[in-house]
Write a structure and sequence with these properties.
This protein is α/β, with parallel strands linked by helices. It contains 15 helices and 24 strands. 27% of the residues lie in helices and 24% in strands. The structure holds adenosine monophosphate (AMP).
């Protein structure tokens, strides 16, 4: 027997309707790409998104068409995002940091029909447009006054394109499983793969993000999503914030410590989210200027392991609660958060920080388990590690236009991460499966060694890779970047690590480099490091 409740499809445009109706006065503030701060209300956002939908429909964009965006987090990007999805077209957010060849591959694979693009990326468009035959028009997210002469016929200023259309438009209505958004993963090998989110998965994921142990946004919050909209849905924030009626503060192209601080302060930001490198920049700025963070009460840090020192500094010196998050593009992306729960609330000092360095517990609507190489589930004892598998309604079942089967027979998706889970459900990532270091048959967690090493005074960034060893198979090499002006040496780092990590995890050598290679989403490019150090000989082997 079926229940007798309304068949009300979960469509993302209903989020904006709700926000405009109930929190229409709340602001959306943007550091514009042109420079000045721009502000309007969620009611304006709703109206302008409807106008985008109407303008897209007038262009002949219809259900299932792909519309690309190459843009920073701004008001206009949010309008383009909702306007596209609201007519059942698919908003394809592109990562501008990808290599040109990857952007060519992705756009042709997706067959995008239009592109919304920020002024910053016009040179990229000018260089690559003739390799993107499916794109008919480039809509530059600016006004006529700021649009430079590109010499291209199919380029129009967003405000000119929008001007003829009012907001007298009704969103399309369709099945909630209709595709809403497309985001390609920037894998380290092979071509990028498209993750295709549905309206249903995005709405459920937005609700999930607003659970108290995740972002827990309310209408009292002022939220600054620093994580880009092209990085897995800005971690749900462009849905979760309007759902809650939180104020949205969009950073535009200003990702440096000073620009971020200015918004945190002037817009009284209470919650924010970004990858560790962004917080590193902010912390450096705060330390140089002696400024404080009186309004900010919590930040979600994820996308890469959050160093212990960062949690300690933000919590102890600045009074900001750190929520360490883990996830991946295929998971929309939220998978877990290291939030305190009733059973861990008694933890103080180091024990509390230790817990927070774990990637944490799943929110409702994510299931996870760890299995060994034979697929057998490992006990939740905080030490038995293996492959981390996940399942849930906002997790990929396949890649866009790919035949490859990515789920096992019970519907589990292998994240490619190696982890263990403890008795209370706290998961800790020890490595990517491709990055594990196997020494004498035992695994060394490169992530844990890296995180400990960045706590050493003078160290800015750390990477650990395995180097072939005749006796042990592999031994760890620690590669470090010094903080500007620091004089830290190998002996200082080894002395610092001594006693903080298992003795047999101690790196066999430490080398210093000017910078470490990163992927387009800010992750360490270990493959490149392994190639660079392929012929490296560890000292005791020499
Ligand atoms: P992406 O899809 O580009 O966001 O990458 C997802 C991958 O980033 C995960 O599978 C992890 O390997 C890594 N990752 C994300 N968050 C964390 C975290 N908090 N700690 C360690 N690794 C992380």
């Amino acid at each position: 027997m079926l229940g007798l409740m309304q068949d009300y499809p979960l469509l993302v445009q209903t989020v904006l309707d709700h926000a405009a109706r109930n929190h229409g006065e709340r602001e959306l503030v943007t550091r514009s790409v042109e420079g000045p701060i721009r502000r309007y209300t969620l009611s304006d956002l709703h109206s302008r998104s409807l106008r985008v939908a109407k303008a897209l429909a007038a262009e002949g964009i219809a259900l299932g068409d792909r519309v690309a965006t190459l843009a920073w987090n701004t008001d206009r990007h949010v309008e383009a995002w909702y306007g596209t999805m609201g007519i059942g077209a698919i908003c394809h957010t592109l990562n501008p940091r990808l290599f040109a060849e990857q952007l060519v591959y992705i756009i042709n694979h997706a067959e995008d029909r239009l592109m919304f693009v920020d002024l910053t990326f016009l040179p990229l468009v000018q260089a690559l447009a003739d390799k993107w035959p499916t794109i008919d028009k480039y809509i530059v997210l600016t006004d006529n006054k700021h649009l430079p002469d590109t010499g291209m016929k199919n380029v129009v200023a967003y405000e000119d394109w929008l001007a003829p259309h009012d907001d007298d438009f009704t969103w399309a209505r369709f099945d909630e499983n209709t595709a809403a958004a497309l985001c390609y993963t920037s894998g380290t090998t092979g071509n990028p793969k498209g993750v295709l989110y549905s309206h249903r998965s995005n709405v459920l994921h937005g609700l999930m993000a607003n659970q108290p142990d995740v972002f827990g946004l309310t209408s009292h919050d002022s939220m600054l999503p620093i994580v880009p909209m092209f990085h897995a849905n800005a971690w749900a924030l462009t849905y979760a914030a309007p759902m809650a009626g939180a104020k949205l503060v969009m950073p535009g192209a200003g990702m440096d410590g000073a620009s971020i601080y200015e918004l945190l302060d002037s817009e009284k930001v209470t919650a924010s989210a970004a990858v560790p490198t962004v917080w590193l920049g902010l912390l450096q700025y705060l330390q140089e200027t002696g400024k404080k963070l009186p309004y900010l009460n919590r930040v979600v840090i994820g996308g890469a392991a959050c160093p212990r020192m960062m949690i300690e500094t933000l919590e102890n010196d600045y009074g900001v609660e750190v929520i360490h998050g883990w996830g991946m593009t295929e998971m929309s992306p939220i998978g877990s958060t290291g939030s305190i729960k009733h059973a861990t609330a008694h933890l103080k000092g180091d024990a509390r920080i230790d817990l927070k360095t774990k990637q944490g517990r799943t929110p409702y609507l994510v299931e996870m388990k760890v299995v060994n190489d034979d697929g057998q589930e490992q006990p939740r004892d905080g030490k038995s590690f293996g492959h981390l598998l996940v399942r849930g309604p906002a997790i990929s079942s396949a890649y866009y236009r790919h035949d490859e089967n990515i789920l096992d027979k019970d519907g589990w998706f292998d994240t490619g991460d190696i982890a263990h889970i403890d008795e209370l459900g706290y998961m800790q990532i020890t490595d990517r499966d491709k990055d594990v270091i196997k020494s004498g048959g035992e695994w060394i967690s490169s992530i844990e060694v890296e995180n400990t090493a960045v706590g050493c005074p003078g160290v800015a960034e750390a990477a650990v890779i395995g180097i072939a060893h005749p006796k042990w198979g592999e031994r760890p090499l620690l590669i470090l970047v010094r903080q500007p002006g620091a004089e830290v040496e190998k002996a200082d780092v080894l002395a610092y690590l001594d006693g903080k990590i298992a003795h047999w995890w101690m790196p066999d050598d430490v080398v210093f480099v000017e910078e470490l290679p990163h992927t387009a989403t800010g992750k360490l490019q270990k493959m490149e490091l392994r190639e660079k150090f392929a012929d490296y000989t560890l000292p005791e082997q020499g």
